[in-house]
Amino acid sequence: MDTRAVYPGSFDPVTNGHIDLIQRSAALFDKVIVAILRNTEKTPLFTVEERVTMLQEATRDLKNVAVTSFAGLLVDFVEQIGASVIVRGIRAVSDYEYELQMALMNRRLSNKVETVFMLPAEAYSFLSSKLVKEIAQHGGSIHGFVPADVEKRLCSKFRTQ
Ligand code: PNS
Questions:
Q1: Which uninterrupted H or E stretch holds 50?
Q2: Catalytic residue (choose from 42, 63, 143, 159)
Q3: How far is the CA of 9 from the centre of ligand 1 (A)?
Q4: pTM (2 decimals)?
């Protein structure tokens, strides 16, 4: 059986915690589709195109990983591309409530799609895109938190703002 999993998120920007989860998912599923939400409500730091490029660059050695974007309901996208699994990362207990709510709602919306929770390496349990942006904005070091290319892009974004 060819099991396709979707790893959805904002990825604004991708962190090493996300990459860790993508690597773990790629070892578990036949194909992993990293899907960036095209969200018109949020004001992201990076455009969807920039985020796709950063994720493609960071996952280019993982042959069963593809990167794309989606709009609308996640379960509709998952079904459209013939996937059956949604992967979400849980870093700490604090993530669990929101993730549980989303997973149960997604199950209600489609009983063909299963959510799988995965744990990133402990070293990344405190990492988030939001904190990384905040540190970079105030000139702190984000080395080791994001891929090298993302580190460069973040530094130049805040230098020019
Ligand atoms: O990285 P994020 O921002 O926590 O990811 C949230 C995401 C993209 C997984 C969630 O907002 C989502 O699935 N949005 C698509 C719209 C949708 O399906 N909403 C109902 C979810 S129960």
A1: helix 48-58
A2: 42
A3: 6
A4: 0.97
Nearest 10 degrees: Cα torsion 44, 131, 20, 43: -10
Please identify, by atom number, the ligand 1 atom nearest to the C-alpha of residue 105: 22
* Cβ contact 90:119 at 8 Å: yes
Rounded alpha-carbon distances, angstroms, from residue 150 to 14, 67, 141, 143: 8, 16, 13, 10
Give how far Cα 156 sits from Cα of 58, 133, 139, Å. 18, 12, 11
Which token pair is 152?
């460069």
Tell me the CA–centroid distance for residue 160 and ligand 1, in Å: 30
* Per-residue tokens: 44: 């992201």
The percentage of the chain sitting over the pLDDT mark of 70, rounded to a whole number, equals 99
* Residues 67, 6: Cα–Cα separation, whole Å: 10
Residue 41 has pLDDT above 70, yes or no: yes
Residues with CB under 6 A from ligand 1: 8-10, 37, 73-74, 102, 105-106
Who's near 40: CB < 8 A, 6+ residues apart?
Answer: none
Q: Active-site residue 91, yes or no?
A: yes
Neighbours of 65 (CB within 10 A): 21
Q: Catalytic site residue 38?
A: no
Is the Cβ–Cβ distance between 6 and 85 less than 8 Å? yes
